[in-house]
Amino acid sequence: MTTATARHILVDTEAQCLELKEKIENGEDFADIAKQFSSCPSKGQGGDLGQFGPGMMVKEFDEVVFSAEVNSLQGPVKTQFGYHLLEVTSRS
């Protein structure tokens, strides 16, 4: 089974998600932004979600995590929880 590790930032609005994406693209640290702005409990670990397989996350999340280039910033990705910025940190 394919597995991946990823980190994410969860916010309420697409506009905020885009603002944070721009900050990261301009050199700010993903983990620092996650700790400061994410509404997910994973923010304490800089947004790190650990390792998981297909079907363990919501469909929209899975589609990105298992298709995006590793170490690329993805998003906004809308789910029932809000808007996510995602970074796949490994996949095997």
Write the layout of secondary structure elements.
Elements: E1 4-11, H1 14-25, H2 30-37, E2 48-52, H3 59-65, E3 73-79, E4 82-91
Antiparallel strand pairs: 1-2, 1-4, 3-4
Strand order of the largest sheet: 2-1-4-3
- What's the number of extended β-strand segments? 4
What's the helix-strand series? EHHEHEE
Instruction: Characterize the overall form.
Output: globular
Number of domains: 1
CATH level 3 topology: Chitinase A, domain 3
Name the beta content range: 25-35%
What would your notes on this structure say?
- This protein has 92 residues and is α+β, with helices and mostly antiparallel strands.
- The protein has one domain: Chitinase A, domain 3, CATH 3.10.50.40.
- The chain contains three helices and four strands.
- It has a four-stranded antiparallel sheet, sandwiched between helices.
- The chain is globular.
- 29% of the residues are buried.
- The mean pLDDT is 97.
Structure described in brief:
By secondary structure, the protein is α+β, with helices and mostly antiparallel strands. Helix content is 29%, strand content 33%.
Question: Main attributes?
Answer:
92 residues; alpha+beta; Chitinase A, domain 3; 3 helices; globular
